[in-house]
DNA sequence: TAGATTGTTAATCGATTAACAATC
DNA sequence: TAGATTGTTAATCGATTAACAATC
């Protein structure tokens, strides 16, 4: 299952989740696709189509129960289990991301920080001591690492990723400016800050 | 001009730019859409279509001159002028982004850092002293701020953005987990880390 | 029941790919 | 010139929107 759902739909799901979470905080119990459509600035039709990729979560004449829908989307997004995260490259960005992951209330758990710079060894970031990259193989024997964050210089990203794939890592959150080549079954989510900045820059021109 | 070009095309331009930059570093002088297609894993047809939204940069029987195409895409993306950047919210992420912007060789120039926390006042980040938010109005009189980076808690983002819009800021790079409502003519580029993480999480499930 | 709103099919719109004539 | 490869039109594919019957 879960097959054949377009990337466009998946990109929208976290946003639904965020809006439903806010409604929940505000004590809203039910919402129609029409109301949600107005708040989110998308068509009601799209909301109903998107949700119906995963199942019929609403009720005719009533709409959607906010708590129920929120929970269902959480399940769809895989937020019902804790994901163990290890981070590679404890520079400025790496430290910020480590802190960020730990501070978010999402079920992602920072369990290890790795770098190649001896000077960083043992430094505490977000409550965790930095380890050396060559200690990871050992670490990996006693810890299940679900996600590797790559906050490395671009030339280091690919070799490190390859090494981690060999050691069984199956998911990467990649901040390096490269397109990682990984085997089938390994997933990569990119955050390319420079490309985001360039898009902003483009939109500032003529338009 | 520049009108009517789809967001999908714009999203791909920075990636072309990156690949062309690498070719340039490797001393490659010319490339055909076919070769580039293979490297980038997109169709040659798409490359030609994308580029021809902006003009005919190639030559039949030859392909594209790498340096020329690189420069043209740079122009399209607005990378021929320096953009002054001010950042709001000097937390972990804010500091990392400040450092990031300064370290990138792209033409974005960090000129001010603002926070509301008195304890941060005067602290030097990326070579710039942190100022208090209420000093911005003054600062803005003597400096041209092209882009405001928002690395603030979500509840602070909207009020601060509104204030900045009133003071003439026309572009936002938004890291807060909110959809900013801004007047027409003001551009917003979002980096929603939590949504990126959730997409990764989704792709780790069934698929 | 009558009114509201979903789930779903059909229609439209836009983006991607294929094909090929133009041309270097 | 012959070969290569673009620019561009046409065909296909996919995603979004509209419409409405089903149903709570």
Identify the biggest protein-protein contact and residues per side.
A-B, 54 and 54 residues
Low-confidence blocks of residues of chain A: none
What is the helix content of chain A? Answer: 40-55%
Order of strands side by side in the largest beta sheet of chain A?
Answer: 6-7-5-4-8-9-10
Please, what is the average pLDDT of chain A? 96
Quaternary structure type: homodimer
Note down, in words, how this protein is organized.
The structure is a homodimer of 207-residue chains. The first copy, chain A, has 207 residues and is an alpha/beta fold. Chain A is 44% helix and 19% strand. In chain A, the strands form two sheets. Chain A has a seven-stranded mixed sheet, with helices on both faces. The first copy, chain A, is elongated and about 65 Å long. Chain A binds a DNA duplex (24 and 24 nucleotides) through residues 6, 8-9, 32-34, 43-46, 48-49, 51-52, 56, 58-64.
Helix and strand layout, with pairings?
Two copies of one chain form a homodimer.
Chain A: H1 7-25, E1 30-31, H2 33-40, H3 44-52, E2 58-59, E3 63-65, H4 66-76, E4 83-88, H5 92-103, E5 108-115, E6 124-125, E7 128-132, H6 136-142, E8 147-150, H7 154-166, E9 171-174, E10 187-190, H8 193-204
Parallel strand pairs in A: 4-5, 4-8, 5-7, 8-9, 9-10
Antiparallel strand pairs in A: 1-3, 2-3, 6-7
Helix pairs in contact in A: 1-4, 2-3
The first copy, chain A, binds a DNA duplex (24 and 24 nucleotides) through helix 3 and strand 2.
